[in-house]
Design a protein that fits this description.
5-stranded mixed barrel, 136 residues, 5-stranded antiparallel sheet, 0% helix, single chain, mainly beta
Length: 136
């Protein structure tokens, strides 16, 4: 395409909730960490190369479907997830740092010797979890 030479009505996806095509053979659960895996939405897992995009707003079942057979609504924002344990326990002193995905509901202080993807930024820590800002 050539550069614009006149005004253009550019479509947008407004708001913090966006529908993403879901990866084959997964069942995202409402409230879980949502990631992009090879371009498709999937539950967070301890793996590298994932891009955290938010929190699943609904449970969808694509366990028998192909990539993109169903769509899931994902919300960007700041959410409370479970805190890891022992050396990976996140403390308030870690606020402002990245945290890492352990599973679809747990975050950790470290990348697990380069085995985990970034979940987002630590905002605050409560006795029952970690507030994490996910998504742009």
């Amino acid at each position: 395409m050539a550069a614009l030479s006149a005004a253009r009505n550019t479509p947008e996806r407004a708001g913090g909730v966006v529908g993403y095509p879901v990866k084959a053979s997964v069942k995202p659960i409402q409230g879980g960490i949502a990631v992009l895996s090879a371009g498709y939405a999937a539950p967070g897992t301890a793996a590298t190369g994932l891009i955290a995009i938010g929190r699943f707003e609904e449970t969808v079942d694509n366990t028998s479907g192909a990539n993109g057979a169903v769509t899931a609504q994902v919300k960007r924002g700041t959410f409370k997830f479970g805190n890891s344990t022992a050396g990976d326990l996140i403390a308030q002193v870690d606020a402002g740092a990245d945290c890492y995905i352990v599973d679809d509901q747990t975050v950790a202080k470290t990348n697990g010797s380069n085995t985990r993807s970034v979940a987002g930024k630590i905002i605050a820590v409560d006795a029952d979890g970690v507030w994490v800002k996910i998504g742009q």
